[in-house]
Specification:
single chain, about 700 residues, alpha+beta, four-stranded antiparallel β-sheet, 21 helices, about 65% helix, elongated
């Protein structure tokens, strides 16, 4: 390998036919992507119309509560809509307040077909009056249910000290969907802005940053169109959450690939006269690492197909499609644009043929050379100190809050949550939302009697019957989502299971979500580790190096969750944590975090193949890739951090944990720990491949 900056011989002129092909190929690639984008754009815009955010789309596929929700959809009127209108005055309701409540609920009854006339239930202290209101006229249509909630809210109102709130399951779902409806545009714009700012700071060029940003936008549109096609052709379930995370993945992973490619291309432009030949050399050099990187992410995400949780299993293919589209665009469209624009796209820091790279990047490479030198002086101490730090941070996991309740899922409290809290305070001896039981019609009477005698049940009544199933509404003595209500649900399931009954409802759904996430984590974590390990072994032709990288990303995941435990409750005041956070953050941090290990180790392997001694190979790899890994890590962390700006606790937690993990991985693990481990092991890092025995170099 020729030293960078050394005078190179003049390039050999290419034959005319080859010159014509060189000019035509980039234009053909650009034209193809323009055509693909034109076709994809109208289909990508339709993705919002096929997103599904119903209860069943997030529940475990085999859980009791899922069976209940599906059976309810088959009953007359479908799952219908249920709200609770709450009237409250702190000093006690007046006769006028009660008259207002009766008149307003009468207007609701006159405008809609309700399952029963509204009947007020006063609180014992006389401050609150609640009216449960339900209808089956909406059927299973989510838009109709949302319209019903909006109509109820328009027909009620307080004033002069009278507070009126609309809560209940349908109102909570409406508020959740309203938040998700604002996510798409906000997330796309915020992510694009963050990426643009970071690219400008990275490239210090008024033009170059536009290319990766435009190409990642093309990848996002293409991925949305492909997902829409999978929904139409295969019935894939896409939720607002999975679509939003896909956007973050496309921008984060795509920009990372662009940073690696552009950095390698810029280096090759100093060695090679022709931009076309420089790009070919850059693709040969970083292509295997980028392919392996995208392969680990896609493989890790596809492991989610084994999840029983519908929202998690749907996220797998959605995220994998986004990553593959980002890879395709960055490895074809971006190279074509860079070749067509030539060296001038780097202005004012143009990489001249034969120039010294330290003229434009010496400061950054000097920083990572200094970091490598620090690790090289005392590698054992650095490795031990880093491991202790990660272990100490991981202890914060013991401070993670419990499972997130529905009412605590928003960072800004909506009306439905305020209503739930009012009901919990005013009716401590009565649940404001029923536990839903569905039983075979033939045994419904026995099931109803069994429900009424179950410990913790205050009341039970029969509802709709159709298609061999009967619906029962069971009210617990304890407040919704309390430990007492959870005990009641468990007792109902134990008592009624012999009758073939299923126990569901909002509180049961939360319990099933928590249990299923624990099961999915136990199944998917080994699958992800195995899939990523196999990709790394194939790329690095080693067993020790992949195991080092796997151990590093697992340690980062533990430390990142520990940081969450130190921040969620004490700093942010979160009352709970989404039960799916440990699993999803593991998939993202292992699959995405190992990217930087791939970039570093692949370059280290290149240097070893060129004959560099182990110490020199490790330090050269860090010096040459440290800058691009740092830039890529900051971009990826920033794109996930955008999730923390959204008003949902689950997405805020996801964004903060993944962002913290990526930054730890970038600036501590890759820079110091992996380098230190490589220095300590020497050639043994490539065991059992030929490099571990000093063989396999190009000189040989």
């Amino acid at each position: 390998m020729q030293a960078v900056g050394q005078q190179l011989p003049p390039p050999v002129a290419a034959p005319p036919r080859r010159s014509r092909r060189r000019r035509a190929l980039p234009w053909a690639v650009v034209a193809l992507w323009i055509a693909l984008t034109a076709i994809a754009l109208p289909f990508g815009e339709k993705l919002a119309d096929v997103k599904r955010d119903g209860v069943v789309d997030y529940l475990p596929d085999s859980a009791d509560s899922t069976h209940v929700a599906r059976i309810q959809q088959q009953l007359p009127g479908g799952s219908g809509a249920e709200v609770v209108v709450v009237y409250r005055r702190d000093g006690g309701l007046t006769a006028g307040d009660r008259a207002t409540a009766a008149a307003q609920t009468a207007r609701i009854a006159a405008a809609h077909t309700l399952t029963a006339p509204p009947r007020g239930v006063p609180s014992k202290d006389g401050t609150t009056l609640m009216y449960p209101v339900s209808t089956t006229e909406t059927g299973n249509d989510e838009k109709a249910r949302n319209a019903f909630v909006d109509a109820v809210r328009e027909k009620v109102g307080g004033g002069d000290g009278l507070v009126v709130q609309v809560g209940g399951p349908s109102a909570l779902q409406r508020d959740m969907e309203e938040v998700f409806g604002s996510v798409d545009g906000t997330l796309m714009l915020a992510t694009a802005l963050v990426v643009a700012v970071l690219l400008i700071l990275t490239y210090r060029s008024p033009f170059l940053w536009l290319l990766p940003l435009a190409v990642v936008g093309v990848a996002a549109v293409t991925s949305q169109a492909l997902i829409y096609g999978l929904v139409q052709g295969l019935g894939l379930t896409v939720s607002s959450q999975s679509a939003g995370i896909m956007t973050v993945l496309v921008f984060g992973a795509g920009t990372d690939y662009a940073l690696l490619l552009v950095a390698r291309y810029r280096d090759e432009l100093r060695r090679v006269h022709s931009p076309y030949d420089a790009m070919r050399a850059a693709l040969r050099g970083c292509g295997p690492a980028v392919l392996a990187s995208s392969g680990t992410v896609a493989a890790g995400l596809l492991c989610l197909l084994a999840a029983d949780l519908n929202s998690a299993s749907g996220l797998g293919p959605v995220g994998a499609v986004g990553v593959v589209c980002a890879l395709a665009a960055m490895m074809t469209l971006l190279p074509a644009l860079l070749v067509l624009l030539g060296r001038r796209v780097f202005w004012p820091l143009v990489p001249r043929y034969g120039s010294d790279p330290t003229a434009t990047t010496g400061r950054r490479r000097g920083l990572f050379a200094a970091m490598g030198g620090a690790a090289a002086r005392r590698p054992a101490a650095v490795l031990a100190g880093g491991a202790v730090l990660l272990g100490a941070l991981a202890l914060g996991m013991f401070n993670l809050p419990g499972s997130l309740k529905q009412e605590d899922g928003f960072t800004e409290r909506p009306e439905s949550v305020s209503a739930m809290r009012t009901l919990a305070a005013s009716y401590p001896d009565r649940a404001s939302q029923p536990i839903t039981v569905v039983a075979p019609a033939a045994t419904a009477d026995r099931t109803l009697a069994g429900a009424r005698t179950t410990p913790g049940v205050a009341a039970a009544e029969q509802g709709r019957t159709a298609d061999g199933w009967t619906e029962l509404n069971v009210f617990a003595e304890d407040a919704p989502e309390s430990a007492g209500e959870h005990d009641t649900i468990e007792a109902l399931r134990a008592n009624l299971d012999p009758d073939g009954a299923y126990v569901g409802g909002p509180s049961a759904q939360q319990m099933d979500l928590e249990d299923t996430n624990a099961r999915d984590t136990a199944v998917i974590v080994p699958l992800v580790l195995t899939a990523v390990l196999l990709v790394l072994i194939a790329l690095l032709r080693s067993l020790v190096a992949p195991l080092i990288l796997i151990a590093a990303v697992v340690a980062v995941w533990g430390a990142a969750l520990g940081i969450g435990g130190l921040v969620f409750g004490p700093v942010l005041g979160f009352a709970g944590m989404d039960p799916g956070l440990p699993l999803l953050s593991f998939v993202f941090l292992v699959a995405l975090g190992v990217d930087y290990g791939i970039f570093l180790m692949h370059r280290m392997r290149e240097e070893a193949l060129a004959g560099a001694p182990p110490r020199e190979a490790a330090l050269t790899a860090l010096r040459t890739t440290g800058g691009v890994i740092a830039s890529a890590g900051v971009v990826l962390a920033a794109t996930f951090a955008v999730l923390a700006t959204l008003p949902l606790v689950a997405l805020v937690g996801m964004g903060l944990v993944v962002a913290a993990g990526v930054l730890l991985d970038t600036f501590l693990v890759r820079t110091y720990l992996v380098t230190s481990a490589s220095l300590l092991l020497g050639r043994r890092v490539w065991w059992p491949g030929p490099l571990s025995r000093g063989g396999g170099t190009r000189e040989e």
